[in-house]
Amino acid sequence: MYFPAVLTITIVLVSSNRAGADAPSAPCDISVEDTSNLTLNCSRRDIVKIPNWPEQINNISKDGHVLVTFFNNSITNITQLSPIPGNRIAISFKSNRVIEIEDDAFRNIPRLVYLDLSNNKISGQVLRSEIFQGPYEDGIYREIALETLNLGYNEIHSLDRYLFKYTPNLTRLYLNNNPIEILDHVSILAISSATNLEVLDLSKTDIDSIPLDAFRGLVKLQQIDLSDNHFVTVPESLSLVGSTLKYLTFNNNPVVELNDDSFVGLSNVIELEVGENDYLDEVKRGTFTPLKSLKVLHLCHNRNLRYISHNAFRGLKDKWTLKEVYLDDNNLSELSPDLMPWSKLDVLGMTGNSWLCNCDLVNIVNKQGAGDKFKSDEVPYCAAPMRLSGEYITNITINFCPMLDKTFSPRKTFSLSDLRPKHVLWTILAVAMVAAFGMILGLLVNAIKKVYKTRFQSQPIHYININSDSSFA
Known about the structure:
elongated; transmembrane; transmembrane helix; 15-stranded mixed beta sheet; signal; repeat
């Protein structure tokens, strides 16, 4: 994807039966298109040490493209490589056993633009700026042209402060699947020193936070992947690159909710992916409001996501930019008809949910035209009510939704002219019966109280003063 040469010419096999003492030679395939494109394929050859380049490699023009791959061998030490002519050189040591890289390893290849060191046993102590030193001229080491560096699937905990001193053109850095756990101060200084960085992959690095100043200086960062980590909220530090960030991937993190603070400052993001977050339960009011340039939203495979606020896109509906929305494989059953302007979408995905086919869903699918946005082989179906279970939601018609069925007569407003004599008579009779019942009940209560007082209530005791009563004299 990142290396432009595509080589499809007949392969010439060059082999050697004995290895040299210092640089053993192994059979490699050479694919040559012309003097501008060459591939040296040394993959799966059980190579332990880096072999000498075959003579054919010297025939490449100074503007040519060269790809050298040592994929899936047993190399443990990357020694200084011999010169390779050409303008853009790509080298892959993916899936070896590399534990050491010598200083000046790429000194003779200043036009190295792509280097894949993924899936090895490289630690942070092994990675140092001296590895990437270019030619030594006028008493100083020059820079190399490196643009893409893949360090994924290694044993890196921390990065050297000056690691990228000689790679000022670095635009793509992959640190995924390393046990980083904490982005310490020196690692942050190393990353922020790569000021031309456009792509940063920190997925599966076991981090749960990013310091606020971690991305300071990364004025060109466009894409970041934070998937498969331990974030409980979207890092606030992303706002530092909000003016340039266009692609954000935030899958499989233990976030419980998304709210109006989640994406603050990310006004230029055009594609957002939030999927496979098993703890995500709801998307609250104003969640997507800061994403004023959003065009593609992947909100999929969140198995506990049951609720999306009808105001999740509050403030965006009048200046709508979204073209593709994917809500597949969540735990949704209902959506509000005014969640978004459904007719303005180009693509809509809703499969894998337990949809309740009610009036709101009919409104969304039929009246607002969302049914026209499904891919032909991805039409969702009803889970409830039972009589519609298994039916495609594009086929449903519900006769108790008059606002959506034009065969119903418009609802009339009530007026006094609608009254009939029998209605008046029944009303008067009902009022009279209620009044009579109340009177009878009142008389009955008073009679009971009177009987109680005369028969059961004890007489009060009267006290006299025997000194003043003459009858006791």
